[in-house]
Amino acid sequence: DQNNFYANCSGSGACEDITDLSDGMGTEVYDDDSLIQEVSFADPSGPTNPDCTGRTSNLARFCSNINLFGRLGGFRELKAELERSDPPPLVSRIKLILAPVHEIKEFLVNDFLLWFTTVNERVFEAMISMSDEDLKSDYRTASDAIVYMSTLYRYTDRPDAAQLADTRRLQFALKGFKSQFLERRLASLNDINEILESLDSKESARDEEYGPFWVTKDFMCEWLEQNKILDMIFTRNLHLEVLKRSYKIMTFLALNGKIRAGEVEMIWEVATGKHETIQKNIYDLLLQTTRYLKPEILKIMVDLIRALPHGSYSQQHIDMLRMISGILISIGSKKPFEFQF
């Protein structure tokens, strides 16, 4: 509605000429020199702008400036730079280009976003194919760029937008978690934890920040298992800092019934014979997840502790036995079962 578009515009000549073109013309108009001066890039009342209260006191003027930038070829130049292949743009430059577009995403019309995000896959493939050495100092920057691209996808109406956004982000996190560099593994672990935390948050709050999610708890359980994330935490390049950041993954899997006998026995075996500090952190992870484990898994943990020589019992073993016994007694009072300590 053109009247609504300019209702908040103050000052004469501040807004561009009213256009006869509206959203829905298709993405090709953004490459058409004969139409570029009339097409809309932003609209304060557009479908991708559910609530921009507080973002700016004059939405019409703000969107007018975005449209002017687009009609002067600004977005074309940004997209062309992202598409450049010889030489390709640096990761830091990719982030700098995407950041302002990401910042105004709520105001951008759907057709423009569909046109602009056609570059996403090329940029993603370029970053996912970068070597560990290439990403040595740029992983966090690249991760931010992935988030920007993912969020722009979510603001389009393409049916697979949320799926692309989530799977691309997970692919990049997995790449980082497999890195030989600790800093990159920790950053990737934080990305995975952030996704898990988002699944536990209220849907309205989560979608307001990132847009609709495609991944579900079931999908993430399967993804964590298929990619052997627990194996990478406990058996490949075991590191104290990785253990400290693995609580969210452990509790998420436990809450969803995915910490089973095999996982408990593997983790217990890893702890055996390790340095006291490493062992303590592994036992802490198990201790923190006991309340979410099934009774039969808790019984296995008791058997593992029982098998230890009495002289090797630590305070953590005693704490685990105390917590497990309390949980089993509580469960037994509601649903009797046979078990003896």
TrEMBL record:
Cite the Pfam families for this sequence.
ARM_UBP24_USP9X-Y (PF25010)
Keywords for the protein's UniProt record, in alphabetical order: Hydrolase, Protease, Ubl conjugation pathway
Q: Which domain of life is it from?
A: Eukaryota
Q: Which GO terms describe its molecular function?
A: peptidase activity
Q: Which residues form the UBP34/UBP24/USP9X/USP9Y-like ARM repeat region domain?
A: 166-323
Q: Say if the entry is tagged with keyword Protease.
A: yes
**InterPro entries with a match to the protein in the record:** ARM_UBP34_24_USP9X_Y
Sorted alphabetically, the Gene Ontology BP terms of this entry are: proteolysis
Task: Kindly provide the name given to this protein in its UniProt entry.
Answer: UBP34/UBP24/USP9X/USP9Y-like ARM repeat region domain-containing protein
